[in-house]
Specification:
Length: about 250
């Protein structure tokens, strides 16, 4: 048996499936190490099935708003592999502020768990820049203060183009600086620096409310457009949701 096959046989492999608004993101971890990661469209479930066939999966955790086709297919095709669905009542480390915590996005829950794992005993502002921009405030004792949800980068660009008569469709590639000198660059500046200002404001408001320091953690597909433009020090964790999901799955098996 080769070295890779021996390692696969010895280590515990876990599949994490994050079903988002646009894509399905999947990752295979062996113990705590990321082995593989793929992002597929909503109708490409067979690629996730192939990922399982080429791995040694011991358990699966799915993050989705409700019962999904992915979960159903995996349970039918791989009946011997336990499949779990992320739910707020699995979480013991966070006291959610929502009156109805079942309404909190599963990716937000996983991101907060991942942030706790990386910054234990710290007040944390967790920012995810994906389809929507979500900001969650988490006290170091695990109490969830609440958060905000607003349009993400693509949504802001698309809405200005679709709901006006003449504004063109711009992108972050048109960004020149804080001030634009054309319609395209003005749109880009408004979107990117508007989001930067939003994060800066929310982070400072959080610190002022708690009266002490806090950490700013960023994740999501558009963070690279934002991180270096923010005032407070921060760090980007692209796999923040997966890190949280991995910890949750390990607590369930």
């Amino acid at each position: 048996m080769g070295i890779q096959k021996r390692r696969m046989a010895e280590g515990k492999q876990f599949l994490l499936v994050d079903i988002g608004n646009s894509y399905i993101k999947s990752a295979v971890y062996e113990d705590d190490s990321l082995l593989k990661r793929i992002s597929v469209g909503k109708n490409e479930v067979e690629k996730i099935q192939n990922l399982i066939l080429n791995s040694n999966i011991k358990a699966i955790l799915i993050s989705a708003s409700g019962q999904s086709k992915v979960e159903y297919n995996l349970q039918i095709i791989f009946p011997s592999i336990p499949v779990f669905h992320l739910h707020y009542n699995q979480i013991k480390e966070i006291q959610f502020s929502y009156a109805h915590p079942e309404n909190i996005g599963k990716d937000r829950i996983a991101a907060m768990i991942g942030a706790q794992l990386l910054r234990p005993e710290k007040n944390i502002c967790v920012v995810q820049a994906g389809t929507c921009l979500t900001i969650d405030w988490l006290f170091k004792d695990g109490k969830h203060l609440g958060g905000t949800i607003s349009p993400g980068v693509r949504m802001r660009f698309n809405s200005m183009h679709q709901f006006t008569a003449k504004l063109p469709l711009s992108t972050e590639n048109e960004l020149l600086g804080f001030i634009g000198d054309s319609t395209l660059s003005c749109l880009a500046s408004g979107v990117i620096y508007g989001m930067v200002a939003e994060i800066n404001f929310q982070f400072e408001a959080f610190k002022n409310q708690i009266g002490e320091g806090a950490e700013l953690i960023l994740s999501g597909g558009d963070v690279n457009n934002l991180a270096h433009r923010l005032k407070p020090s921060n760090f980007v964790v692209h796999d923040l949701v997966f890190l949280g999901m991995l910890k949750i799955l390990k607590s369930l098996i």
